[in-house]
Specification:
By secondary structure, the chain is mainly alpha-helical. It has a domain of about 90 residues: Winged helix-like DNA-binding domain superfamily/Winged helix DNA-binding domain (Arc Repressor Mutant, subunit A, Orthogonal Bundle). About 50% of the residues lie in helices and about 5% in strands. The chain contains six helices and two strands; from the N terminus they run αααββααα. A two-stranded antiparallel ribbon has the order 1-2. The protein is globular.
Length: about 150
């Protein structure tokens, strides 16, 4: 099966939007408003502001408030890795505990133990993912894509 025909979903859903926003900031070389970023990445400005706040907290972008405000990169695109962005927008979700009945014989799954062990595995996977993503900078990604003017 070709990977080009299906989406790859690693990390939070906002990862792709965050990367696209950083690429547009890098391409512009200047400050861009959340409304303009939202139009460029086909998203909503409120959602973009939440994503950009995470990137701001991580030191990837800086924001300037007010009517003429917006976002700009704190570092060059060659210094920002996809792993940096992944870490910035990742969050831990505490879902409600789920009770699981594993059969008629009265055995129940130890959900707490499962959660602990699964969390260890997922944390290791996330660390390996971040390590791999750190090998790619935004500048390298930009070299791999083309830009075009809207008609």
């Amino acid at each position: 099966m070709s990977t080009a025909s299906r989406g790859v979903y690693i990390g939070p859903p906002r990862l792709k939007i965050a990367i696209q926003a950083i690429v547009w900031l890098a391409k512009s070389g200047s400050m861009i408003s959340s409304a303009l970023i939202a139009r460029q990445v086909d998203s909503h400005a409120t959602f973009i502001r939440r994503v950009m706040q995470s990137l701001n907290n991580a030191g990837i972008v800086e924001s300037k408030g007010g009517r003429e405000g917006g976002y700009f990169l704190r570092k060059s695109s060659a210094e920002i890795t996809i792993g940096d962005i992944y870490e910035a927008i990742s969050s831990i979700s505490n879902d409600a505990e789920i009770k699981v009945d594993c059969g008629d014989d009265g055995e129940k799954l130890d959900v707490e133990q499962l959660d602990v062990e699964l969390e260890k595995i997922l944390q290791e996977a996330e660390l390996k993912t971040i390590e791999y993503l750190r090998s790619y900078t935004i500048a390298q990604l930009m070299d791999r894509v083309r830009f075009f003017k809207e008609q």
